[in-house]
Amino acid sequence: MLPTLFSLGPLHLYSYGALIAVGGVLSSVFWNSRRAQIGIKKEDEFWLMVNVILIGGFLGGRVLFMFEYVRPFSPEFWDVAFAFNRGFSVMGAFFGVIGAIFWFSRRIHAGFLHVLDYVCVAAPFWHFFGRLGCLAAGCCYGRPTAVPWAVTFTNPNAMIAQEAPALLGVPVHPTQLYEAFGNLAIAAILFFFGLPRKESGLLKPGALTAAYFLFYGALRFVEEFFRGDTVPLGHGLTAGQGFSLALIAAGLVLGTAAQNSCTPS
User: Fold this and answer.
1) Would you state the pLDDT for residue 239?
2) What is the pLDDT of residues 28-67, one digit of tens each?
3) Which residues pair with 142 in a beta bridge?
4) C-alpha closest to that of 242 among 106, 68, 24
5) Contacts of 224 by beta carbon, 8 Å cutoff, 6+ apart
């Protein structure tokens, strides 16, 4: 694939970061179009929201990635902390963004679940671009396979060459594409079917967030069976599957609460 789009002396534009940036810009366009519905009254509040999502997602995702895949506080640990070409864990990003939105919603005096619903409508669309970035970077790779749609990483600068050198040049499941297009389907469902119902008052605050948690949790749980970079958790489960089950449980609880709610949260 193409981990680096181009280099100019010591400066490098990495495909991973570039694609995430594209997803972020397009998601911000959506949020900007719904400023009034979200409860954002001033332009600086909108940019505050965008920035807290970026900071919360980056910090949460990078910290969990470091503790998952690198020996804590080793020399490599600190190298990864400040590297622009290393990935981050979407599981950590979930917690980081949720915490950031909780703070932001209190800051603008809007309902936390109401604001989070709008974030969750765009999140899988943004995640789609992120997984395309993973494909370009060669991270989040799949297990070896003989399926006709397998992908083969041959670039020595791809992350797979650093994390699993034996898989360089070996056909593997394109798990990045499995998740990318799964997220695109989730985004379409939430945008075309969920959002109109929310904005017409048919869905309570938190319903779209619950749907996103359920859909993504199920997608990630199944995808983990095909991943080649999983972290064992125990009882035959991976860390990603443990997170997926927690996300599904949270979605069920939140969905039930939203259904029984009479007033916005």
Assistant:
1) 87
2) 999 999 999 999 999 999 999 999 999 998 888 777 776 6
3) 227
4) 68
5) 230, 238, 240, 241, 244
Q: Please tell me the total number of residues recorded for the chain in this structure.
A: 265
pLDDT digits (tens, 9 = 90+) for 186-238: 999 999 999 999 999 999 999 999 999 999 999 999 999 999 998 888 888 99
Asked if residue 171 lies in contact with residue 142, where contact means CB atoms within 8 angstroms, the answer is no
Q: How far apart are CA 258 and CA 265, in angstroms?
A: 9
Element (H, E) at 7: strand 4-8
Instruction: Provide the sign of the torsion angle of the four alpha carbons 223, 91, 181, 118, taken in this order.
Output: positive
| pLDDT value of residue 2 | 77
- Residue 265 is predicted with a pLDDT of 46
Strand partners, 12: 7
Distance CA(118)–CA(191), nearest Å, equals 10
HEC profile for 49-97?
A: HHHHHHHHHHHHHHHHHHHHHCCCCCHHHHHHHCCCCCCCCHHHHHHHH
Lookup: tokens for 148: 């006709």
CB-based contacts of 58, cutoff 8 Å, min separation 6: 88, 93, 96
> 9 φ, ψ to 5°?
65, -130
pTM for the structure as a whole: 0.89
